[in-house]
Write a structure and sequence with these properties.
Layout lengths: L15 H10 L13 H24 L16 H24 L5 H43 L6 H11 L6 H40 L9 H14 L9 H7 L3 H22 L4 H15 L3 H10 L4 E3 L8 E3 L1 H16 L12 H32 L35
Parallel strand pairs: 1-2
Length: 423
C-alpha cells in the first residue's frame, strides 16, 4: 500500500508521477501550477498585468512626455519655417525704415514707430528660435503633472484602479474584472484619438510660430500672437480637463464597478476635450467619432456618453445669432487668417454668417415639427373654448325708424340785386 504521506506514490508507473514529484519539489501542492499557483491565480495575474499595461498606455497617449513637434530650432522640419519668418520680419522692418525715412518731416511719431519696429523685430526673431524648446519643456511638465495627478498613488484615478484590482471589494469577481478591462480598452481608444489630434495640432502650431511672430515687426500688434498662443496652450493643457474626476475618486475607491463608471465619464471628457480643445477640426472629428459609435451600437449608455462628449450643434459656414453653433474648419481658418492679416496691415473682407446646408435642413425639420405641434395645440385649445362658450342670441330685426327729410332753405337775395324779398 502506498505511503499516505506521499500522495504522488499513487501515480507510480504513470506519466503524471514525474509531474507530481516536480510540483512537490518546487513547493507547490499537487494539482496546482508551478510555485503553488493554480490556473485561476495565474489568469488573475495576467489580467492585472493587462490592466497595468493599459493604464500606462493611456497615460502615455493622453499626455506623452515626448511629442511630434520639433524640439530644437535647427530641426529639419522647423528650419524652413524659421527662415521664412526671419526674412518676413526683416522685410517688414526695412519697409518701416523706408517709410519713416520718406516721411521724416513728421518728426517724433515716425521716430517712435521706427523704434517700436526695431525692438519688436528683435523680439520676434529671438522668439522664433526659442519656441521649439519652450514647447518641449512645457510638454514634459504637462506630462509629469498629469502622471502625478492620475497615477502617482492610490488617491488618484489610475492608482485607485490598480489598488482595487488587488484588494478591492470585488477584486475576485470575474464580472467586475471584465467590466474594468472593457472600460480601460474603450478609454484607450479615446486616448489614442486624443493623442493623434493633440500631436498634430501642436506640430502645426509650432511650425506656424515664425510666420505669426513676424507680424510683430510692423509695430507690436499682438492680436495674432495672442490668438495663436491661446490655441496652442489650449491644446497643451487639454488633458487637465480630466481633473474634474479627481473629487470622485475617493467615493469610487474600493470598487472596480464604480471605477469603470469613472472611466466612462473620462471617455466623455476626452471627447469633449477634442471638441473644445482642438482648433478648427475638433468639433468635426468629435462628431465623426460620435456618428461612428452610434452607427456601430444601439447601447443607450454608449450613445449617451458620446452625446455628452460631442453635443448637437449647428455648423456656421460663413449662423445667425441665437443658435448654438460652431464654425466649420474653413470659416475658423478664415477668421484667424483675418487676424493675422490685420497684424500685417492687410484688411480681409468679412464674410456674412450662414448655416451650412445640412444644418439648415436639420433646423427646418426641427422647426417644422415644433410649428406643427404648436398649431395643433392652438387648434385644440380654440375648439375647447368654442365648446364651453354659450351661443350668443341674435336680436330679431324690428321696424327701422324713419328719418325726416331735410328742409329746403330758400337762399337770401344778395343786396343790390334789384329784387325785393316778396317778389
Amino acid at each position: 500500500m502506498a505511503d499516505k504521506d506521499d500522495p504522488c506514490d499513487l501515480l507510480k508507473g504513470t506519466p503524471g508521477y514525474e509531474y507530481c514529484r516536480g510540483n512537490q519539489e518546487s513547493g507547490g501542492h499537487p494539482g496546482t501550477g508551478a510555485g503553488g499557483k493554480g490556473i485561476s491565480d495565474g489568469a488573475s495575474d495576467h489580467v492585472k498585468e493587462l490592466a497595468v499595461s493599459l493604464i500606462k498606455k493611456i497615460n502615455g497617449l493622453v499626455a506623452p512626455g515626448k511629442g511630434w513637434a520639433p524640439e530644437t530650432a535647427n530641426s529639419g522640419l522647423y528650419e524652413p519655417f524659421l527662415w521664412l519668418g526671419q526674412h518676413l520680419a526683416v522685410a517688414i522692418f526695412m519697409s518701416v525704415v523706408v517709410v519713416c525715412a520718406l516721411t521724416a518731416w513728421q518728426g517724433a511719431p515716425r521716430l517712435r514707430q521706427m523704434g517700436a519696429s526695431t525692438g519688436w523685430s528683435l523680439a520676434a526673431v529671438a522668439g522664433m528660435a526659442s519656441v521649439p524648446g519652450v514647447v518641449m519643456l512645457l510638454n514634459k511638465a504637462v506630462s509629469a503633472a498629469f502622471t502625478a495627478a492620475f497615477d502617482s498613488n492610490e488617491s488618484t484615478l489610475f492608482g485607485a484602479i490598480s489598488a482595487d484590482m488587488d484588494k478591492g471589494a470585488d477584486a475576485g469577481n470575474p464580472l467586475a474584472i471584465l467590466l474594468i478591462i472593457a472600460a480601460l480598452v474603450v478609454a484607450l481608444a479615446f486616448a489614442a484619438l486624443v493623442f493623434m489630434m493633440r500631436q498634430l495640432g501642436i506640430l502645426a502650431f509650432v511650425c506656424m510660430a515664425p510666420v505669426v511672430l513676424a507680424s510683430l515687426a510692423r509695430g507690436g500688434d499682438t492680436s495674432a500672437v495672442k490668438a495663436w498662443a491661446g490655441k496652442l496652450l489650449g491644446l497643451m493643457f487639454a488633458p487637465f480637463a480630466l481633473l474634474l474626476l479627481s473629487p470622485f475618486v475617493a467615493f469610487a475607491k474600493g470598487s472596480l464597478v464604480v471605477d469603470a463608471v469613472l472611466l466612462v465619464a473620462a471617455d466623455a471628457l476626452m471627447l469633449r476635450m477634442i471638441f473644445h480643445g482642438v482648433p478648427y477640426f475638433g468639433p468635426k472629428v468629435a462628431r465623426g467619432a460620435r456618428a461612428l459609435v452610434e452607427r456601430r451600437t444601439d447601447n443607450r449608455l454608449a450613445r449617451a456618453v458620446v452625446r455628452a462628449g460631442a453635443p448637437d450643434v449647428y455648423e456656421r459656414e460663413n449662423a445667425p445669432r441665437g443658435l448654438r453653433t460652431v464654425d466649420t474648419p474653413g470659416r475658423a481658418v478664415h477668421q484667424d487668417r483675418g487676424v493675422l492679416f490685420a497684424a500685417y496691415g492687410v484688411t480681409q473682407r468679412k464674410r456674412e454668417g450662414q448655416l451650412t446646408t445640412a444644418s439648415t435642413i436639420a433646423q427646418v425639420n426641427q422647426r417644422a415639427a415644433r410649428t406643427a405641434q404648436i398649431t395643433q395645440a392652438r387648434q385644440q385649445a380654440r375648439a375647447a373654448v368654442q365648446r364651453q362658450a354659450p351661443t350668443p342670441r341674435v336680436p330679431a330685426p324690428g321696424p327701422q325708424p324713419r328719418t325726416p327729410a331735410p328742409r329746403r332753405q330758400t337762399p337770401n337775395p344778395q343786396p343790390g340785386s334789384g329784387q325785393s324779398p316778396n317778389s
